[in-house]
Amino acid sequence: MGQKVSFQRPDGKECAGYAAEPAAGKIAPGVVVIQEWWGLNDQIRGVADALAAAGYRALVPDLFRGKFTLDTAEAEHLMTHLDFLDAAKQDIRGAAQHLKKTSGKVGVIGFCMGGALTVLTAIHVPEVDAAVCWYGVPPEAAGDSGTIRIPVQGHFALRDAFFPIAQVAKLEARLQAAKVKHEFYRYEAQHAFGNEKGPNHDAQAKKLAWQRSLDFLAKHVKS
After folding, report:
1. How many domains does the chain have?
2. CB atoms within 10 A of CB 184
3. Domain carrying residue 202
4. CATH number of the domain to which 149 belongs
5. What value does the mean pLDDT take over residues 191-218?
6. How far apart are CA 219 and CA 129, in angstroms?
7. Edge-to-edge, what's the strand order for the sheet holding 182-190?
C-alpha cells in the first residue's frame, strides 16, 4: 500500500521513511508514525497502512537508518544508541514539515520507544497539532512537558514492566499542573499490548485504544 520515501530534515540532511497515502492524496491530513524499538518493520508499516485507510497521509521516519530486528538485546542496543532529541527535532520534525507542505494539520502517534518520542515531539516540534502516545514516557530531563501547547492522548498498560504506571502518573501530574489538554487511558494489559505480532498482544485493549486514537485524531487533525 505504501512506499519508501525520502524527505529533508531541518538541518538539510536526508531521512528515509515509509509513506502510505489515502484516497484523498496529498491534501489529506497527515500523521507521523513513530516506530517501536524493533525498527521500521512490517508491523509499523501496517499501522501506517491502517491510518491511510482511515484517511490520513502516514509517514514513518526510519530512525534506525535501515536497521530492524526481532532480537530484544539488539533492539535495546539500537534504542540505547539513538539520540532521542535529534530524532525528535530533526527526523520527526522533518517528517512533520514534509507532510505540512500539503496537509493542513499533522498529528503524531508512537508506540513504546516511539511513545516516549511522541511526548518529546509534542514538546519540541511546533508543526505538530496533536499527539497520541502508546505506552512510552520520556525522561524528565529530555524536555519540559509543561510547555506542550497541543492536545495529548495517552494509552498505558497497568502491568507495564518497561514504563511502570507510576511514571505515567508523574507525567500526568506535570501535564495537569501546566494545564496541558490531555486524556490518559489505562488498560489491564502488559507493555506493547497493541503490537499484534508481540507476546503481550491484547486484542480487546488494542481495539479500544485504536478507536480512541482514531476519534482523537479525527477531532484534532481532521477537523
Report:
1. 1
2. 16
3. 3-222
4. 3.40.50.1820
5. 98
6. 11
7. 3-8, 14-20, 57-61, 30-34, 106-111, 130-134, 152-159, 182-190
